[in-house]
Structure formats: structure tokens, C-alpha cells
């Protein structure tokens, strides 16, 4: 009988459904709260050195735990590299750029005046977002120089050194929705997220609906997943009003509680099958 260790922050709907799907396939699942884990920084095996499914909500905890467990010989899904890359929007963008994957233009800056000058040069509107973060938090549309000065002032005068990095991205005039493609080894389905607000995130009130992923979108999502080393990821795509499609972000801890009824994609079962296929 195969065995999987699942690491979590909170046992949300996703973790419960995934655990049930694994057990329904005859797999033994041990669950571990990341807050309780204290691991030696050595090659000493943890448990039996088998497969670990990393479902921690904390980016910091997940990337460190994955890295430590890989050194200890565990097969971690997703890998430490994938988690570290997807959890940092700047590193995600660089990984996509290295593979010539279409995406909005973006730049990174470390000083207020220099960032405002570059926004002036590239033109408005544009979008500023934190390098680390999720669920559309602290993402802002910037419509002109005065707004840019205010946003950059807050970015560089508040918080610690980690927050004093400005990621600025091209604003894409979407047709009222964005797209998410689920890649579980390969593209397995997707959803369209509709909203009257320009931030189309279900955590911010966007309405999910199923969309049949056309082959070009599936290939683009699979390329993006490979670029970051992701095996089970959600790839967010932006579509312009002219039909051009580009990659925006990639999520390493796939969430589906808000959308599974709308999309009818059996993600827990698909993920369980992939995990068991990767389990020694």
C-alpha cells in the first residue's frame, strides 16, 4: 500500500477533498500541520523519505519545508524550486522570460523616483503589485504620475526591506474576465473568472465558470508550468480584447473550493492520480 504525507496550514476544503481522494485509492495518508514541524538541517530521513504533498498556505513555510525535505530524500510535490519560483512574482516572470513565454511587460525597481520615471516613460495605466503575495492583495492600478508617486511612496516608506521592491506590470484591458488553466502533469481543464472590477480574482468576488481550454491555451499553460518546474499548478492567463493571450501568474498551491461546483473538473481525483503515479 502506498503512503503519502500531506503538509497543511489549515485543513481546508481542498485538503480534505484531496485526502479523501487519495484514501479512496487505497493510499495511506498522514497529515502534518506545518506549525508543528521542527526539522533538522541534515540529510537525516524524515518519516520514510517518501512522497510529501506540500499544501501549506504560508509561502515561507512551504518553500523552506520543501527544500529541507528534498535534502532528506523525500519526493515533494510541488518541488522546492517550483514553490520558490511561483511564490515570487519577479522570479516567476524571469522564468517565463527565459523561455520566451508571452506575458505583459514588467519591470522591477528599488527606488521611488526611478520607478515613477520608468512608469512615465512606459505610459499609463499600469499595475503595481507586491513581489510576494496572493489573492489579489495590494494590487493597484496606477492611472497617472500623481498616483504613481503616491503608490511608490507607500511602497518604499512603509514595511521592511523585503517590501522595498516595486514590481510594475503592463495593464491589460481584459474583456471582463481572465482565464485559469489547471496543469496536473498536463492541462486538464480551466475556468473563466468574470468580474466588473479589473481585478478578476475569486477571492475578490469574481464569478467562476467553466471554460473549455482550447489547444493553444493548453500548450501555453503547459509551457509556463515547465518553465517554473511546476507539476500541479494553476496558470493564470490574460486575454486582451483583440484575442492575444499571455501568462500572468502561476499558483503552486492549487485552490478550487470556490470553483469546483462551477467548473465540474474533478481536481482532487486528478491530483490524487498524479501523486500516486509519482509515489515510489
Shape: globular
- Could you report the average pLDDT, rounded to the nearest whole number? 93
| Helix amount | 25-40%
CATH topology of the largest domain: D-amino Acid Aminotransferase, Chain A, domain 1
Give the tags.
alpha+beta, Dna Ligase, domain 1, four-stranded parallel beta sheet, D-amino Acid Aminotransferase, Chain A, domain 1, 280 residues, five-stranded antiparallel beta sheet, 9 helices, 34% helix, ligase
Describe the structure.
The protein is of the alpha+beta class. The protein folds into three domains: 3-86, Rossmann fold, CATH 3.40.50; 105-170, ATP-grasp fold, A domain (Dna Ligase, domain 1); 177-265, ATP-grasp fold, B domain (D-amino Acid Aminotransferase, Chain A, domain 1, 2-Layer Sandwich), CATH 3.30.470.20. It contains nine helices and 13 strands. It has helices at residues 13-24, 59-71, 80-86, 89-98, 112-122, 145-157, 215-228, 260-263, 267-278; strands at 3-8, 28-33, 51-55, 75-77, 106-109, 126-129, 140-142, 166-170, 177-184, 186-194, 207-211, 232-239, 245-251. Strands 11-10-9-12-13 form a five-stranded antiparallel β-sheet. α5 (112-122) packs antiparallel against α6. It is globular, with a radius of gyration of 19 Å. The N and C termini lie close together (11 Å).
Amino acid at each position: 500500500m502506498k503512503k503519502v504525507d500531506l503538509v497543511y496550514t489549515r485543513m481546508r476544503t481542498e485538503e480534505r477533498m484531496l485526502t479523501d481522494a487519495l484514501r479512496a485509492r487505497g493510499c495511506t495518508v498522514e497529515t502534518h500541520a506545518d506549525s508543528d514541524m521542527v526539522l533538522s538541517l541534515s540529510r537525516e530521513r524524515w518519516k520514510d523519505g517518501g512522497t510529501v504533498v506540500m499544501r501549506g498556505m504560508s509561502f515561507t513555510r512551504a518553500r523552506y519545508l520543501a527544500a529541507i525535505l528534498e535534502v532528506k530524500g523525500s519526493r515533494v510535490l510541488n518541488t522546492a524550486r517550483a514553490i520558490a519560483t511561483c511564490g515570487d512574482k519577479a522570479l516567476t516572470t524571469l522564468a517565463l522570460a527565459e523561455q520566451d513565454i508571452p506575458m505583459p511587460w514588467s519591470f522591477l525597481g528599488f527606488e521611488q523616483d526611478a520607478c515613477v520615471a520608468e512608469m512615465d516613460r512606459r505610459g499609463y495605466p499600469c499595475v503595481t503589485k507586491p513581489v510576494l503575495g496572493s489573492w489579489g492583495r495590494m494590487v493597484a492600478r496606477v492611472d497617472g504620475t500623481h498616483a504613481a508617486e503616491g503608490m511608490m511612496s507607500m511602497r518604499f516608506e512603509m514595511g521592511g526591506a523585503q517590501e522595498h521592491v516595486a514590481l510594475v506590470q503592463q495593464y491589460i484591458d481584459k474583456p471582463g474576465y481572465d482565464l485559469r488553466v489547471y496543469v496536473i502533469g498536463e492541462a486538464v481543464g480551466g475556468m473563466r473568472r468574470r468580474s466588473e472590477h479589473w481585478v478578476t480574482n475569486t477571492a475578490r468576488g469574481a464569478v467562476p465558470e467553466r471554460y473549455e481550454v482550447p489547444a493553444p491555451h493548453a500548450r501555453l499553460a503547459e509551457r509556463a508550468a515547465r518553465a517554473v518546474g511546476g507539476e500541479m499548478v494553476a496558470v493564470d492567463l490574460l486575454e486582451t480584447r483583440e484575442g492575444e493571450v499571455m501568462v500572468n501568474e502561476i499558483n503552486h498551491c492549487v485552490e478550487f473550493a470556490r470553483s469546483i461546483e462551477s467548473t465540474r473538473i474533478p481536481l482532487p481525483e486528478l491530483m490524487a492520480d498524479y501523486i500516486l503515479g509519482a509515489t515510489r
